[in-house]
Each structure stands twice: as structure tokens, then as C-alpha cells.
Design a protein that fits this description.
- The chain has about 230 residues and is α/β, with parallel strands linked by helices.
- The chain has helices at about 5-10, 35-45, 50, 70-80, 95-100; strands at about 25, 55-60, 85-90, 105, 130, 140-145, 150, 160-165, 165-175, 175-180, 190-195, 200, 205, 220-225, 230-234.
- The protein has two domains: about 25-105, Alpha-Beta Plaits (2-Layer Sandwich), CATH 3.30.70.260; about 120-234, Pectate Lyase C-like.
- The protein is built from five helices and 15 strands.
- Helix 2 (about 35-45) runs parallel beside helix 4 (about 70-80).
- The longest helix is centred in the N-terminal third of the chain and has 14 residues, at about 35-45.
- The chain is globular and about 50 Å long.
- The N and C termini lie far apart (about 70 Å).
- This is Probable septum site-determining protein MinC.
């Protein structure tokens, strides 16, 4: 007897594939849970829609081998603000064990070069510039794998544009723009009209509410200078 077509289509119940996901990072510089909770509450209050049900990673790398952090308590605080903690990056063996016990995953440590920065175009080696001529609608994600991204139209609120290299937006930028998506800290964002929900270089981000009001609606470039995310008029 022939198997029903539906059974054939579902013979393999799932497949596991790599994907390019955008995750917020909570990069810790201290272990004081009360201070972290207060500062997080202030951040969420400025942009509640930005953080609602957003997956987030706790970056422990700056803490070195410090063990005194209540990870289960921190995860509870984040969930209380509507965030979804999914894992930790780095940290001491004791903190990684605590993360597993708290139901969090372990992510590979971020590789940061201690030598002279690689020129921005090096990130695009082997990758082509991706050019988008149509508006990027809410809910869409456009990614330039291994190269730069050029958008000749508007990026709507709720839309997301990512690139391993630089991002150029020639219409209003109202959604999220994440350049240097795989860690290139020399990448830049260039836009003709800055109204972004979020801009990010190599995971270092700034929210709309944190942008200088004098820059909103104007042509701006975004880049990293040391550990600072800089926004300057073009």
C-alpha cells in the first residue's frame, strides 16, 4: 500500500540549519544585580517595543574569571522586562556551569583582534556588494553576506538591514541597521535621513531614544572609535 503523500513529506520531522540571527547583547562590566536591574529598567522604559520578546545574550567576557554573579536572578530580571535570555558568552567555568543550570545556552567567545584593525573592505573580501532598490518593509530582514549593503529606498520601522561590511541607506532609515555583523569593528553606516530604531557596529548599538536630537532626520555616519560608538553628520 502506498504511503500517503503527507507522510512522505514529513518523513524527516525537522532539519537543523545555521542562520543569521540578530541578538541583543547585555555586556556586563560588574556583577551587582541591583545596579544591573535598575539600569536595565531604565533602558527598557525608553524603548519598550524594542525589547519586547527580544532574544538576548549575556556577555560575560569583560568580567574575566569573576564568579560572583547571580545568573539565575539576572535571567529572572530580564524575563520580568519581557526579554528572552537565550545564553551567555564567555565567563568563568563556574559562571558557565551556573548558566547551564539556569537553562541558558553557551555561545562561543567573541574573537577580538588586539592588532591593528583590518580595513573595512577586508570584511567584504570574497563577497559582493548587495544593492536593494525597493523599500525594505516592516518585518523584512535584508542581509549582505560577506560584503556591503546599499539600500536605495527607505527602511521602514520594524525592518532590519544587516551587512558584514558597511551599510549605505539613501532613503530614510527608520528600522534597524547593523553593520559589521560578524565582528568587523571598522565597518560603518551611512544614511541620508537618520530616524533609526537602532544602529549597531559589530554588536555595539545605540537606540533611537539615545540618539542626539540634532542628528535626527539628517545625513549621518556611524562608526566605532575605540570602545565608543560615534555618530557624526555627513
Amino acid at each position: 500500500m502506498d504511503r500517503p503523500q503527507s507522510d512522505v513529506l514529513t518523513a524527516t520531522p525537522f532539519e537543523i540549519k545555521g542562520s543569521m540571527l540578530t541578538l541583543l547583547e547585555l555586556r556586563l562590566h560588574s556583577t551587582g544585580l541591583d545596579a544591573i536591574a535598575q539600569h536595565l529598567a531604565e533602558k527598557v522604559a525608553k524603548a519598550p517595543g524594542m525589547f519586547r520578546s527580544a532574544p538576548i545574550v549575556v556577555d560575560l567576557q569583560a568580567l574575566g574569571q569573576v564568579d560572583g554573579l547571580d545568573l539565575a536572578g539576572l535571567a529572572a530580571v530580564m524575563r520580568g522586562h519581557g526579554l528572552v535570555p537565550v545564553g551567555v558568552r564567555g565567563g568563568s567555568p563556574a559562571l558557565q556551569a551556573a548558566a547551564v543550570e539556569a537553562g541558558l545556552g553557551l555561545l562561543a567567545a567573541e574573537r577580538r583582534s588586539e592588532t591593528r584593525p583590518v580595513p573595512a573592505k577586508a570584511a567584504a573580501a570574497g563577497g559582493k556588494t548587495r544593492v536593494v532598490t525597493q523599500p525594505v518593509r516592516s518585518g523584512q530582514q535584508i542581509y549582505a553576506d560577506g560584503g556591503d549593503l546599499v539600500v536605495l529606498a527607505a527602511v521602514s520601522p520594524g525592518a532590519e538591514v544587516l551587512a558584514d561590511g558597511n551599510i549605505h541607506v539613501y532613503g530614510p532609515l527608520r528600522g534597524r541597521a547593523l553593520a559589521g555583523a560578524h565582528g568587523d569593528r571598522t565597518a560603518r553606516i551611512f544614511c541620508q535621513c537618520l530616524e533609526a530604531e537602532l544602529v549597531s557596529i559589530a554588536g555595539h548599538y545605540r537606540l533611537f531614544e539615545e540618539l542626539d536630537p540634532a542628528l535626527r532626520g539628517h545625513a549621518v555616519q556611524v562608526f566605532e572609535d575605540g570602545d565608543n560608538l560615534m555618530l557624526q553628520p555627513l
